[in-house]
Amino acid sequence: MVLASAPIPLKAVEVEVEGARILPAMRAFQERRAHGNGHYFNRQEIARIQPRVITDVLRRVPGVQIQPVNGAFGSNDMVRMARTTGVTGGRPCPVLFYVNGTPFPVTGDLSINQYVLPEDVIAIEVYAGTSQIPPEFQANLLNARCGVIVIWTREGNEDDRAPAPKPSDG
Known about the structure:
CATH architecture: Beta Complex
Number of domains: 1
Largest sheet: 5 strands, mixed
Number of helices: 3
Structural class: alpha+beta
Distance between the termini: 48 Å
Strand order of the largest sheet: 1-7-8-5-6
Number of strands: 8
Order of helices and strands: HEHHEEEEEEE
CATH topology: Ferric Hydroxamate Uptake Protein, Chain A, domain 1
């Protein structure tokens, strides 16, 4: 008896690469996310939400309050954290934003939506209160006690997307 080889059809395997290189900021983001002390969104999760503005993403985080405020430039969404203050109940508390690791105070009647576009964001970290905030984002002088929101964007010419396919020669 002679055995004949017969190929077995297999399902196609699809491989997705997050990027050949990981930006140092994203490596730190992934490490903080692994500890789970906040709420985290990467580029793919943000894209699934299909936000028009950054506050569309932040609305999904428990404890984050988006308050519409009329200002000199029209209606804006101000971001606050719900804080419990004992028997008097809760009060809104302003958050401190960081953009690409640098404190970014949003003041007056302007909103973070006027500074950052969702399509430029590669990650967001939200920390509600001092106990969650990692040491690198604790800035008591800049009102970090209410909470911190860290936004990571594409910087300069860096592009976190996969390179475009090369046109074929044929």
